[in-house]
Amino acid sequence: MQGVNRFLAFAFSNAAVGSKILCPCRKCSNSFWYEASEVREHLICDGFLKGYRTWNLHGEPTPSVNHENCDIDVDGVEVMDDPDEDDDISGLLRDLAGGLDDRGDFEENSPDLDPCEGLVAIQKLVEENSKDLFPTCKKYTQLRFLIRLLHIKLLGGWSDKSFNLLLELLNDAFPDGSAVAKTFHEAKKLVKSIGIGYTSIHACENDCILYWKENIDLNSCPKCKVSRWKSTRKSLDGKHVYNVPKKVLRYFPIKKCLQRLFLSSKIASLTRWHDEGRKKDGLLRHPTDSPLWEDFDEKHPTFAADSRNIRLAFATDGFNPFRTMNNSYSIWPGICIPYNFPPSMCMKQSNFILSFLIPGKDSPCGNFDLFCQPIVNDLLDMFENGVRTYDASMGEYFQLRAAVLWTITDFPGLGYVSGSVTSGEAACPDCHFFTDSIRLGSGSKTCYMGHRRFLHENHPFRFDADKFGGKTEFRPAPKPLSGEEILECTKDLSTSFGKDPSGKKPARKKRKEGEPLVIFKRRSIWFKLPYWKDLMLRHNFDFMHIGKNVCESLLNTFLGTVGKSKDNLNSRLDLQALGL
Amino acid sequence: MSLDEIKLFCQVLKGVKFPDGYTSNIRQNVHVGERKVFGLKSHECHIILQDLLPLAVRKILPEIVSAGVIRISNFFKKLSAPVIRISDMESLQADIAETLSLLETIFLPSFFDIMVHLMVHLPAQAKIAGPVHFRSMWPVER
């Protein structure tokens, strides 16, 4: 009853035409106009229309981003057009400026970013935001109009050229005193200063070096002598000559991405969820409940002291941007996933932080670490020193620190990231030296058996020689290597990047009798992070890929798919050779 | 499996209907006439492995084989639970070792590629780092 009264009061104050409103009862479903008493009667007898939550026909603004819709779906009824409610660009700028304020004293250790530069850019944006689109236009400011245009360009997939043509037309059509950007380039330049940009770092074509830090001015790779540039191009006005690089690593500075999390007060308060909001009852529902997290907190008490410090996971995978059009192209994005948030938010795509993109026809393979250099560098700094960040939920500045807890990759990717061997004799990174493998000659495959080692000591299977090829098994289960042991294993390995320019893979040497097994190809760059060696788990085996592969091999074996079944002539021959 | 059995197997897969939003229509990928299943995406594999395979193989395969397969699918089902207990993971660990040893007596050596082997290590990792869906590549792949 109360609800009905409240609704009527709201509707009549906002959306009444004369003394009538649209009746939202189940029978009329917003199609007929009635007076107040009649609507009340209908609502009590028939009930309120189901699913009609946002009273957009009764004066409540629609929550949609595209606020032009509001004008269409309300027939003749004025909608409150509150500028704060749709884009809120001025609010965004205010927050940005808040984040940038008085950091002058802190920025001295990173000279590449002039503290004033950010502020100046913001000031320019604010200025742009205060100008009306044209003198009589009250609805759009210049900046807002431009951002909407760019958004539409993105959604519609317009080409740069068509966008330029449109801008030309708009500039022509608008009354005097308007100043929309002249070209796409100009528009992009303006919007860029909001800070969602990336840095491009040029790379050697053969993945030998990155042209950054001490190599930034080189013109050719010191190792393979290949030029850095692909071609030269003249700028639009013909005054400058640009060099076009061969390969560009796009790096999205992780520090800024993480700082941006704290600009919204809602998200900023959620970063403390793992400490304050979760249930603590010993069940594992989230990585925060895990022994690893506790262990990490114990070993790094200063890091754990502030629950706003962000724990990340690093995920990477090759994918093909051209769908099935071109099968041989793979691009490798590196993604950081913040784990501070509640489960419903944590694994959502919108909360992932894209941190770099490795282009290229070929996957980086063993040179993956080369491209990780910038992010590892930043993460190292973020763990040790932190970044001064404005927390919008508490309204204060603090040193934000971040740590990567583990990496998520598929199995070949795990080899690239961790530097361990993922095929051949010692393919399992957790069993390392004790991987139990048999080379199957005629199938030219390696198989990994000996699962009896993982049974407990007195299990009947261990003594059962008949079923298991005439052998009993008394070896204990292998333990994964600790960080210290990995460091010990990898201390002599050289880390030189680069691949053979001719595109050939280096010939594999067959291991001779008596030589030790190779289980690491190089020391992973992640060991630069001081906490990396103390982690209980560094690289995850991906559950999804394992599940998928097991399912496929089971199905194919059962169905006897030609070429995919594991039960074929070769494996029967192997069985004979093994004498089973 | 004989041809008829394969056909029966395919028919079981062909006949399933799912609630809306649970998975894509697996029936499209099953071809009874050719006795083939192909074009599966990873999530469909996930569903088949966890829910359908135990049903489909029950009557068709010899008891000892189907027992092994059902144990594997139970293993994945338990492991992918959103809330897990450490003690559960320990029992799973013992369980999967036993299952794989059992399968070693049934399947050919070539079945045991590295992916099958890695199943042994999954519960240990889950014990250390929590539920698998926070550490898997579902969202990343898309």
How many domains of chain B? The number is 2
> Largest inter-chain interface?
A-B, 88 and 72 residues
The geometry of chain B reads as globular
Largest sheet of chain B: 2 strands, antiparallel
Please render the helix and strand layout as text.
The complex is a heterodimer of chains A (580) and B (142).
Chain A (H helix, E strand, L loop, with lengths): L1 H13 L5 E3 L10 E3 H11 L21 H6 L15 H12 L14 H16 L11 H15 L3 H14 L10 H9 L6 E5 L6 E2 L17 E6 L6 E5 L1 E5 L2 H8 L3 H6 L2 H4 L14 H9 L1 H5 L4 E7 L15 E7 L4 H4 L6 E6 L9 H17 L2 E5 L4 E5 L1 E7 L2 H8 L18 E4 L4 E4 L11 H4 L19 H8 L48 E2 L2 H17 L9 H10 L2
Chain B lengths: L2 H12 L15 E2 L4 E2 L4 H16 L5 H17 L6 H21 L7 H5 L3 H8 L8 H4 L1
Antiparallel strand pairs in B: 1-2
Helix pairs in contact in B: 1-2, 2-3, 3-4, 4-6
Verbal overview:
The complex is a heterodimer of chains A (580) and B (142). Chain A is an alpha+beta fold and 580 residues long. Among the domains of chain A are: 72 residues, no CATH class; 104 residues, no CATH class; 50 residues, no CATH class; 163 residues, no CATH class. Helix content of chain A is 34%, strand content 13%. Chain A has an eight-stranded mixed β-sheet, covered by helices on one side. Chain A has a two-stranded antiparallel ribbon with strand order 1-2. In chain A, strands 5-6 form a two-stranded antiparallel sheet. In chain A, strand 14 and strand 15 form a beta hairpin. The termini of chain A are far apart. By secondary structure, chain B is mainly α. Chain B folds into two domains: 60 residues, no CATH class; 60 residues, no CATH class. Chain B is globular. Chain B has a two-stranded antiparallel sheet. The interface between A and B is large, with 88 and 72 residues.
